[in-house]
Amino acid sequence: MYAVEVSRLKKAFGATQAVADVSFAVEKGEIFGLLGPNGAGKTTTIRLMLDIFKPDAGDVSILGGPMTEAKKNRIGYMPEERGLYQEMPLEACLVYLATLKGLSKAEARRRLQPYLERFDLAQHRDKKVKELSKGMQQKAQIIATVLHGPELLIMDEPFSGLDPVNTQLAKDLLLELRRQGVTILMSTHIMHQVEEMCNRIVLINQGRNVLYGEVAQIQRQYSGHAVRVRLAGELPPLAGVQAVVPLNGVVQLMLDQRTTPQDILQQLVSRHCAVEQFEIALPSLDEIFIQAVSQQ
Amino acid sequence: MSKMWLVAEHQFKKEVLKRGFLLAIVAMPFFLGFTAFMGWLTERMSQQTTAVGYVDPGQFLRTPPTGDDHLRFVPFASPAEARAALEAGEIAAYYVLPADYPQTRQAELMHNGQVSSEATEAFVRAVRANLLAGQPPEVATRALEGPRISMLAMDSRRAVPLDAPGLEQFLPLLVALLFAFWVMTVAATLVGAIADEKQNRTVEIIISSVSPGQMMAGKIVGVMGMALLLAASWVGLLLGFAWFGANVMGWEWLQDLRINGRDLALLSLVALPSFLCLAALMVALGSTVVDVQEGQQVGAVAFLVLFAPIYLVFLFATNPNSPLAIALSLFPLTSVTSLAARSIFMEVPTAQFVAAALVALVCGVALVWLAGKLFRANMLRYGQGLRLGRMVRRGA
């Protein structure tokens, strides 16, 4: 059973078709990336999943069935538009939001303490939210999303507004939650984080699926016929190489159709080259993203 | 605890812990008290101690005229002495009752400048009392009271004593005014409570935890709790004021106060659905405005509508059954204040109260539905207002 299953989803606002045909499924305990350029329909898809909007067509199954009020306690949602009560003290605000997710006040306070310490917010607990920096508010928002111990986390751009140190903190938290069995669906533009964290992705553009599947498989699917090599010395002339492209300390060898990476490695070894790095050139998700979107 | 109650509790605490709430509690009694004090002060300042003389050679005034702190009657033996005092500025005027006054009933008033009406009334009252000296006391007292004129509408059993209308005549209007102030306080708070969620960008987080209906209901209940506390405070302060006035100050107008239970009960019947209408309207406005400030500005327009019948009270006095008066009585936002204003001059038929309550109830239910639609359509339009046309074209 999937944690989330979205099938042939459609939603229009007047003449604007925000979501035209989106389908994907999120497996339990995985980190799933919902990707797409601005205006692709990611946020609308998330809102349809959470029953904030009603779909014009298609089905959403979340935690084993349609979205219900009771399921809201099992889901943590961090929307694109961050929001906390600016006039409230931080602790009171987070405790209130946790009680709306079914925790008692005492339990919310008990769970909050370690999070405040982990995110270096303990000494700011009595400050009004508006007195906190943007980064601090962002960390508080992450705490508000996970405090009630959800089974499913849906996060829209979870790392925006965070500096590298706090990004790592947030990333570690999400990886820790995944290890605990929490399913995470995140929408982000930061592709290296997707490569690093996500098991699978769906890329949508103009409200439709463009790519869907495991990250590694998609990269292989988009890989050109090339290898990346770093040698201690000069690169000798090699048979079957059509072009050599220098790339930040390595060279990318574009191979003809009859030559395999193994042929190249064999040639290098037979010529006694000191090979420091040898890999099949996989495109980055950034490149795949641009290529897939521009092909549409 | 149900999530709706959690939202309500949060909203209630948020509102009553504001400094503005304490201000609202004292504002209304302070406003009434300040108005009364200013009236009293103005009257005191306009009153100067006046000395008025009189000459009564025939000893007609067996009971001499009496003054008070601001009015003193000075007897003179002759007109010449009185005139000298007048010219010296010791007195403002003097009356001369000739020796044959009982026969002629002709008296003279000599004055330098204007004589206050209080002085004239006090002297005339003294002369009349002496003229009635031989009459039985009850006859004399009644004759001194003069005529009692009440205005009675043609089709009504309600009489308004024109010479001295009492507080009970105006009590329904006073209650309606308090209701209007109360409703507006609630309304402004309600608009703010909804707009605040948009301004803080918390709507999406909240509705991922509770349903939009629970959120709206929680906010309305929370604000209502605050409003009831406010109303209880006002009523408590006013009752305290009334008790103080009646028992400590000995004010007769408060001691003799009789409350018209029928009017108040019927007004309450209309007030509840009328409040529902306004609350739903405010939720709708709160959903469509950009921020709290804009919400308050829009709410002020509703305030003007609510008070319109107060400005038209003189039209109601002329014809409390005019088509305009009846129309305003049936329009949910003006029904309470209109019916209260008309109740001063006539006994408004029970059927009109019931009709007003029904109209308000139907409109209230429709507005709650509309507010729900507007809220769903507009809750995530941060920093943007809503155009009606767009709302009609798109559905949430």
Q: What would a concise description of this structure say?
A:
Chain A has 296 residues and is an alpha/beta fold.
Structure description:
The complex is a heterodimer of chains A (296) and B (396). Chain A is of the alpha/beta class and 296 residues long. Chain A has 2 domains: 4-219, P-loop containing nucleotide triphosphate hydrolases (Rossmann fold, 3-Layer(aba) Sandwich), CATH 3.40.50; 225-280, no CATH class. Chain A contains 9 helices and 13 strands. Chain A has helices spanning 42-49, 90-99, 105-118, 134-146, 164-179, 191-197, 215-222, 261-270, 285-295; strands spanning 4-13, 16-26, 31-35, 57-62, 75-78, 152-156, 183-187, 200-205, 208-214, 226-231, 241-247, 250-255, 275-280. In chain A, helix 2 (90-99) crosses helix 3 (105-118). With 396 residues, chain B is of the alpha/beta class. Chain B folds into 2 domains: 3-31 and 164-393, no CATH class; 49-146, D-Maltodextrin-Binding Protein, domain 2, CATH 3.40.190. Chain B is built from 17 helices and 6 strands. A 4-stranded mixed β-sheet of chain B has the order 2-1-3-4. In chain B, strands 5-6 form a two-stranded antiparallel ribbon. The radius of gyration of chain B is 30 Å and the shape is elongated. The two termini of chain B are 29 Å apart. The mean pLDDT of chain B is 80. The chains are: A alpha/beta (296), B alpha/beta (396).
